[in-house]
Amino acid sequence: MDDATIEMIYNTSAERIRETDCAFHRFLYSQIDWSVRVLALSGPRGVGKTTMLLQYLKENPEEAKGGLYVSMDNLWVDAKEFYELVRYHVQHGGTSVFIDEIHYLTDWQRLVKNLYDNFKGLRIAYTGSSILRLAAGKGDLSRRQIEYELPGMSFREYLNLEGIGDFKPIGFADLLANHVQYAESITRGLKVLPLFEQYLHLGYYPFYREDRVHFGQRLLQVVNQVLDVDLPKVEDVTPETVRKARRMLSILAASTPQTPNITELCRNLGMDRKQGLKVLHAMRRAGLLGLLAEDADALKHLGSPNKIYCDNSNLMYVLCGQPDKGTMRETFFNNQIQVVGEASYPKRGDFLVDGKFLFEVGGTRKSFEQIKDEPNSFLAIDGIEVGRASRIPLWLFGFLY
């Protein structure tokens, strides 16, 4: 790597840090231990991973002096060239390196291990696609790195980013026990339901603020990047498999939620069952689909789901046009609850959370008829500002993180 290229990399790093807006932070920012030797941050495209790295460098000038930020999706180098860049950085007083979109590098696990082993004082932070299975094939990295995963924005974060309030997260158990008081406090002087509708359309991805008019178009570009770039790089699949994955996503988005016949779906797509499940779970990890199974652990082992959703409501509007209202409600609930708990598919009701709490999700006319004899049962009701007893406003589940 020549001197001109190295200088360009340093200048780009300084420019990106300087131009970063630090007015709003994602919820995970304050929970990260930035002092660890190796920090791994994964998450879907577009949820703010890059911004978090740059915010940390901008708000910690001493760290920035010895830090170098490099985005691999803009700099096409191999692992050997990047290793030499880091060597140069350390030799010239560098103390940390922040690697964005690391999955663009081949053999990235070996690279991180070598950087860790060979540069004893160097701290490494990297981001990667949420398709990356950090626990698989990483060998000694499991003993070296601390991992974090960043989901899209909650409804609470959306309200804060919009400058509507400075709301704090509500713990799941606290929400169940005290939802009336929380809802009354939040809605005092605030029309929350129209804001909730806005969030369902465009509030999950923070980049909506850059261009609201063309948000849907940009989100489609994100979907295409996941399928065309991330999926082949991480899963090592062929262009034909990518084409089938796109078709699978289109079919599932148009008909969710559903209890899928995976065998039939795969046969119609010209895929065997094993390949189909591999692609399905890759799209789940990538933040394109949400899966629900009777045994939540089964999804960790590429098991077949009992129900399939779009990952979030913003994607529904982009992929489905005008989505079904009932599906939208369940999609939102599943998306938000999965961040703080473990949801599974129950024999009765819509969701079983942490193996104990049963939920039905619906509109204002929803009753307890289907789950009336079940213990620890609740209704998550759309269209109400404040609930009562075991009837909880659906929007309030957007305050869990």
Describe this structure in words.
With 401 residues, the chain is of the alpha/beta class. The protein folds into 3 domains: 3-149, P-loop containing nucleotide triphosphate hydrolases (Rossmann fold, 3-Layer(aba) Sandwich); 154-204 and 312-401, no CATH class; 213-290. Helix content is 43%, strand content 14%. It has 14 helices and 12 strands. The strands form 3 sheets. A 5-stranded parallel beta sheet has the order 2-3-4-1-5, sandwiched between helices. A hairpin with a 6-residue loop joins strand 8 (343-344) and strand 9 (351-353). The longest helix has 21 residues, at 215-235. The relative contact order is 0.10. The mean pLDDT is 93.
| Percent helix | 40-55%
Described by the principal axes of the CA atoms, the overall outline is globular
Report the total helices.
Answer: 14
The total tally of domains equals: 3
CATH top level assignment of the largest domain: Alpha Beta
CATH architectural category of the largest domain = 3-Layer(aba) Sandwich
The N- and C-terminal alpha carbons lie at a distance of 43 Å
Number of strands: 12
Main sheet record: 5 strands, parallel
Q: What would you say about this model in short?
A:
The protein has helices at residues 3-18, 49-59, 61-66, 79-91, 108-118, 155-161, 172-187, 192-202, 215-235, 239-255, 262-269, 273-285, 313-320, 325-340, and strands at 38-43, 67-71, 96-100, 123-129, 145-149, 289-292, 307-310, 343-344, 351-353, 357-362, 377-381, 391-393.
Which helices and strands, and how do they pair?
Layout lengths: L2 H16 L19 E6 L5 H11 L1 H6 E5 L7 H13 L4 E5 L7 H11 L4 E7 L15 E5 L5 H7 L10 H16 L4 H11 L12 H21 L3 H17 L6 H8 L3 H13 L3 E4 L14 E4 L2 H8 L4 H16 L2 E2 L6 E3 L3 E6 L14 E5 L9 E3 L8
Parallel strand pairs: 1-4, 1-5, 2-3, 3-4, 10-11, 11-12
Antiparallel strand pairs: 6-7, 8-9, 9-10
Helix pairs in contact: 4-5, 8-13, 9-10, 9-13, 10-12, 11-12
